Amino acid sequence: MHSRILPSPAPLLSGRVYARFLLIALLIAAVVGVAGCGSRGPKNLLTGKVTLKGEPVNGSLAFIGPDSQEKVCPINPDSTYVIGDLPAGDYQVLVKPFGKAAGPAGAPTPVIPKDSAAMPGMPSGPSLAQGATPPAKYGKPGNGLTVKVTGSSKQTQDFPLEP
């Protein structure tokens, strides 16, 4: 077995060429580092709480935008919600209990299985089922719940419901 010694790149590149190459490589690395690669999470993040007389609500939110497109997110057991990638505009908001249809398109809301504790990383079904059932009036268009998404990176909007 013979080992070969490869020539050093220095004789192939003059000092000036090597310095320019190194400078360009460093500039490219700096630009990529500052600009970033890919997305950095959802845009137009909307967060908040949904409560009924100050208590958590069990269900989901449907955001119906100006183009009549609907985006749905669950309400967490602590009454919080998080939804991202909402285009700027005015939205009508519907609050639905789990297992019911959400919005005019009739898209189903997630149904949490009772045995979800068997799924790794998932809280148990009963903890998700805790909370008040939202009044039926909030599941219909014209319920008075609206939000204006401004296009800022993060907004907070709470929805205190009344019976």
Write out key terms for the chains shown.
2 domains, alpha+beta, five-stranded mixed sheet, Immunoglobulin-like, 11 strands, 163 residues, 2 helices
What does this structure look like?
- It is a single chain.
- The chain has 163 residues and is of the alpha+beta class.
- The chain has two domains: 8-38; 45-161, Carboxypeptidase-like, regulatory domain (Immunoglobulin-like, Sandwich), CATH 2.60.40.
- 16% of the residues lie in helices and 28% in strands.
- The chain contains two helices and eleven strands; from the N terminus they run H-E-E-E-E-E-E-E-E-H-E-E-E.
- It has helices spanning 15-35, 125-129; strands spanning 45-52, 55-56, 60-64, 70-74, 80-83, 89-96, 101-102, 107-108, 146-149, 154-156, 159-161.
- Strands 1, 2, 5, 10 and 11 form a five-stranded mixed β-sheet that branches.
- A hairpin with a 2-residue loop joins strand 1 and strand 2 (55-56).
- The radius of gyration is 26 Å and the shape is elongated.
- The relative contact order is 0.21.
- Mean pLDDT is 75; it is low at 34-39 and 100-128.
* Helix-strand makeup class: alpha+beta
Count of domain modules: 2
CATH classification class of the largest domain: Mainly Beta
Summed over residues and divided by their number, the pLDDT gives a mean of 75
